[in-house]
User: Fold this.
Amino acid sequence: MERTFPKSIPSIAPETSDPSLDRLLFPARHFSHPDEVVGDRTLDIQEKRAILASWASDACAVESMPALRKPPGAATPVTFDAVMDALRRLDGSRAEVGCDLKERRVRDRPQRLDV
Assistant:
């Protein structure tokens, strides 16, 4: 008995009707390099970190080439170093924002009158 399969197999990861959600669930459809994720102004830092962390995971590693990552749906692989560099830039920008907030708090704090 021979099994036959349909010629067109539906995608395991169908596109959603919400483009924002689709970009988070299937980022390789929208971003070809980690730098594009970091530069995207519509994503917040947590969303960018989640996308980059998923790319850095071993689940995206290219077989027999552990230094490369190819997320599902990506046209070309990217290096693990490129993903980690993007994460470091995110952390750096986050630290700068944190410093600015601390400086503003100190500057905006009312001066003590009893000194």
Remarks:
- The helical segments are 19-25, 34-39, 45-56, 80-108.
- Residues 30 and 57 are 19 Å apart (CA to CA).
- Residues 5-12 have pLDDT under 50 and may be disordered.
- Residues 80-108 form the longest helix (29 residues).
